[in-house]
What does this fold into?
Amino acid sequence: MSILKTKRLEAALSQQELADRAGVDINTVGALEKDPPSTRPRPQTVRKLAEALGIAPSVLVGLFNLEVPAA
It folds into this structure.
């Protein structure tokens, strides 16, 4: 299970709820939850998802092999 999906489930959110909170499309959440992800997100998308989950972006960065996005 991907880190993103694990953190989403820990937060008791559906994919749609996370997408709404983060301001991203539900298809983006689904694609990024695949293991391995079927797409590489933009750093700002990682930041938005992390903020919506209440976690540091660095928690998700390793999953996507990205640099830590600036706040």
Remarks:
- The radius of gyration is 10 Å.
- The first helix runs from residue 3 to 10.
- The chain is about 60% helix and 0% strand.
- The domain at 3-64 is CATH 1.10.260.40 (434 Repressor (Amino-terminal Domain)).
